[in-house]
Amino acid sequence: MELPPAWLRPDPLRGLAKVPWSGLDRGVGVDGWLRTAAEGDDAACTALADRLLDDDTVSEASAAAVPFLAGLGAGYQVPGAVRDRVIFLLAALASAGAGFTDAGRRTRRRWNPLGRELPRRPPDWITQTRYAVAKAAPRVFESLARAEVACALALAIAVPEVAPAHVADTAEGLAAGRGFLADAAAVVLHLTQDVTTDARFVRALAARHPTITVPDAPHRPDRVTLQLVGHRVAHLAAYG
């Protein structure tokens, strides 16, 4: 019997020991949590989220951890609950609203009156982490195939530019239903079809889920707001 591609992949944490975690900003302990998460330790998943996405803020360790998180998310041998959590974490890292500077301060995403994102001084961990997630996401999408799971929708919402056609096809089927999963699927379709995001679409989605709140940010494009709301809807679909 031919094994699924994900079973043939190397160790998802291959190369972990080569990363100087203790020398990275906020990297102490990350390698240990990745190892225990691979064994199904839910507490390790929580520790990773707390360290790598501290109050919606990414760091040097966040960018470095992305390939290993993607390995866990793409590995069939990794417990399903861990896969779900690390894929949601990948999506959240890609959508982070702030990044730590070398001085330990937070620099936040900002936009000019035209809705164009303002540049940040290096090291720009917001951009570097998002790029790392976009680069690693295809292997996760491949492993999930056409699975109708909220974590796949969350990742597609975060990095729609690399979401494959089969994810959009799956979302199209789900969007015909009702509830959190259907609404998250509708967001995926909206983002992957690369249509102009209308503020009315965002408001309508938010109105259906009044418990979801997104911090205000001057001049933030509606598309970015839609991604933030969509992520929360997908999370509710998975965890309530």
Structure summarized in a few sentences:
This protein is mostly helical.
Keywords:
240 residues, mainly alpha, 2 domains, 3-stranded mixed beta sheet, 3 strands
What does this structure look like?
This protein has 240 residues and is mainly α. It folds into two domains: 135 residues; 95 residues, no CATH class. The protein is built from eleven helices and three strands. The protein has a three-stranded mixed sheet with strand order 1-2-3. α8 packs across α9. The mean pLDDT is 93.
H/E element sequence: HHHEHHEEHHHHHH
Radius of gyration: 17 Å
> Which structural class should the secondary elements be placed in?
mainly alpha
Specify the overall morphology: globular
Q: What is the makeup of the main sheet?
A: 3 strands, mixed
- The proportion of residues in beta strands is under 5%
How many helical stretches? 11
Widest β-sheet, arrangement of strands: 1-2-3
Structural domain tally? 2
Uncertain residue ranges? none
The proportion of residues forming helix, as a percent range, comes to: 55-70%
Rounded average pLDDT:
93
Give the total of beta strands.
3
Q: Between the first and last Cα atoms, what is the distance in angstroms? A: 38 Å
Layout of helices and strands, plus pairs?
Elements (H helix, E strand, L loop, with lengths): L4 H4 L21 H9 L3 H11 L4 E2 L1 H15 L5 H15 L3 E3 L5 E3 L16 H20 L5 H9 L6 H11 L4 H13 L6 H10 L13 H18 L1
Parallel strand pairs: 1-2
Antiparallel strand pairs: 2-3
